[in-house]
Amino acid sequence: MTYQYKKKCNCGHLDTYELTKREAAFNLKDRYVLNQPCSKCLKKNGSVSSVNKPIDKDLLKEWSIKIQLNFCSQDEDLVLAQESQLIHIFIELLNSKETLNEKEVSLIGAMIEMINIEIHKAEKADLDLVNLIFNDLQKRTRLYLNFEMKVLKFIEQYS
């Protein structure tokens, strides 16, 4: 499956750019598309419509071990929190020794946000999901304590 960016120029012309799943997921072509001139008037102005982020097990595994990859430059945990169907993969990655600490923090943040989403749903919350996440996070209390200690040491070192 291919993904598309659509760039609408101020002249009204619409250009379409094909992306692979990986390019779309990790925003690898954003700058390229933004810098492309309009195929009609050759100006570089206009707006780009974003692509739905394809996030799956393979992409998550690659993301978890490569610091330079991200699904979103800001609030990545909020993007990941929309993927509650992948919760078992999140837990698998958190249990993996290959997963980078920075990615663990994003995964845990996403899991906490998933609980928040479920609690504030207008319709019935998925209590199985909430319990699964809550029980897993209880096991990970040490990660938070270690993270807190690292932050305190960092603050102490630079103050």
How would you classify the helix and strand content by structural class? mainly alpha
Radius of gyration: 19 Å
The helix content, as a percent range, equals: 40-55%
Q: Which residue ranges are poorly predicted, with pLDDT under 50 across at least 5 consecutive positions?
A: none
Categorize the overall geometry: globular
Describe the largest sheet: 3 strands, antiparallel
The number of distinct β-strands equals 3
Question: Into which percentage range does the β-strand content fall?
Answer: 5-15%
Average pLDDT score = 89
Distance between the termini: 51 Å
The count of helical stretches stands at 8
**What string, H for helix and E for strand, traces the elements in order?**
EEHHEHHHHHH
User: Which strands sit side by side, in order, in the main sheet?
Assistant: 2-1-3
Domain unit count: 2
Outline the structure in words.
- This protein has eight helices and three strands.
- The longest helix is centred in the last third of the chain and has 19 residues.
- The N and C termini lie far apart (51 Å).
- It has a three-stranded antiparallel β-sheet with strand order 2-1-3.
- The protein is globular and about 55 Å long.
- By secondary structure, it is mainly α.
- The protein has two domains: 47 residues, no CATH class; 102 residues.
- It is 53% helix and 9% strand.
- The model has no long low-confidence stretch (mean pLDDT 89).
- Helix 5 runs antiparallel to helix 6 and helix 6 packs antiparallel against helix 7.
